[in-house]
Design a protein that fits this description.
Elements lengths: L3 H8 L1 H32 L1 H5 L4 E5 L11 E2 L1 H7 L4 E15 L7 E8 L10 E4 L10 E5 L14 E4 L2 E9 L10 E5 H9 L21 E2 L1 E6 L5 H11 L3 E5 H14 L3 H30 L1 H9 L4 H38 L7 H18 L1 H8 L3 H6 L1
Helix pairs in contact: 1-10, 2-7, 2-8, 2-10, 2-11, 8-11, 8-12, 10-11, 10-12
């Protein structure tokens, strides 16, 4: 038999549909905000998450992934000699100026210098050349999503980075951070020229040969991969002993440091948390109104049940069951809506709305708690109900 709670919900289907739409909206708002919060943290450490490095060596002044002081290339050479290290590769990342032509305004970019033949940052291209072809001077690769921002339309087009030429030879997909300017990938040698030797006089000829990378060349990070089978904790201890004046962080530690900075030291966490809180308030208001109205319309029926000997607990279970059905039937479409929205935002702007199983379970628990707590107002009305007053009415 269909339970009394479900009969009450479905008797006025239009009211039930309005309630479910409201709950779906509330669930979607909570899910999107929490998913954005998780996606924001991952986006801030995009290159860290895409790397194969076990450890990152950085300046002792490191604040988070996007804010640190340069170190010398010599650290790469010294790290390669540490016992248990399989590979150590440099990463140079720094803000620069991009200009498509003389008549266009400048735009900020993040120049990322890597070893084109390296293995610790295995980024793939979806069109044009591969990373190994970045060994050609003044060649760069950008993400497809950033083409409009950089006024690019086709492979082979040329822009300028700090007044040096930059020819786009390939496109990536998904190498886009929502917390930074567009990434411009190039070789370490080209990035060294762009960033460490800015060109102020454009009348001078462009150098045909790039400056060699020396031990004193400034870089930003050293990515380190431990040998297979090595104890990572011991390798980290050796690296810290070899570089006492630097920070040696695991990938997880650097990610957490960056995430904590953005959530605790900026307004991002507060704004996204506020949006999630608004979603919960909206859901509570909608569910409480629907349930209170449903109970008010059926006071005579509830009074009859109480007169027939139905316990308060039985009547409470009817109302709570209604709230639970509303939670489940509002949660599922809300989750589906967020999944579809996340797919679209990722394709359109590389904005990640992360929905992990743990996060989905947390949102479901919050939805149930929201609906059950909203039913308390209706329960209070039933608790004060006197069957004699109902029959007299």
């Amino acid at each position: 038999m269909v339970s009394l709670a479900r009969k009450n919900l479905l008797e006025d289907f239009s009211r039930f549909l309005v309630a479910q739409l409201g709950i779906t909206f509330a669930v979607s708002l909570v899910t999107v905000q929490t998913g954005l919060l998780e996606g924001f943290g991952r986006s801030a450490t995009l290159l860290v998450n895409k790397s194969q490095a076990d450890f990152w060596i950085a300046s002792s002044e490191l604040r988070y992934f996007g804010l640190t002081l340069p170190i010398e290339y010599q650290v790469v050479l010294d790290a390669q000699a540490v016992a248990g290290v399989a590979a150590a590769e440099p990463l140079l990342i720094q803000s620069a100026m991009w200009r498509r032509s003389e008549t266009e305004a400048i735009d900020p970019v993040q120049v990322v210098g890597i070893e084109p033949t390296g293995t610790l940052l295995p980024l793939t291209t979806v069109a044009g050349a591969t990373l190994t072809e970045l060994e050609e001077p003044y060649s760069v690769i950008v993400d497809r999503i950033d083409l409009n921002a950089l006024s690019l339309t086709a492979l082979g087009e040329q822009g300028r980075v700090n007044n040096y030429p930059a020819t786009v030879i390939g496109w990536t997909r998904g190498v886009k951070s929502i917390v930074s300017s567009p990434y411009v990938l190039t070789s370490l040698e080209t990035a060294n020229l762009y960033l460490n030797f800015p060109r102020f006089d454009t009348s001078e000829p462009v150098p045909e040969f790039l400056p060699l990378v020396s031990p004193s060349t400034r870089i930003t990070y050293v990515m380190v991969k431990a040998k297979s089978g090595e104890d990572l904790a011991k390798v980290q201890e050796r690296l810290r002993a070899a570089f006492p004046n630097y920070q040696v962080l695991s990938r997880a530690a650097l990610t957490e440091m960056t995430r904590r900075y953005w959530l605790a030291s900026t307004s991002v966490g507060f704004i996204l948390g506020l949006g999630a809180g608004v979603g919960v308030v909206v859901g509570v208001v909608i569910v409480s109104q629907i349930l209170y109205s449903s109970v008010s319309d059926r006071l005579q029926e509830y009074g009859t049940l109480k007169a027939m000997g139905a316990s308060d607990g039985y009547l409470y279970r009817i109302i709570i069951e209604q709230a639970l059905w509303m939670a489940v039937l509002g949660y599922l479409p809300g989750l589906g809506l967020c999944w579809g929205l996340g797919m679209w935002t990722m394709q359109a702007r590389a904005i990640q709305i992360i929905m992990t199983p743990q996060l989905a379970l947390a949102v479901f628990s919050a939805t149930v708690a929201m609906c059950v707590s909203a039913s308390l107002l209706a329960i209070q009305k039933v608790m004060r109900l006197d069957p004699a007053q109902v029959f007299r009415a």
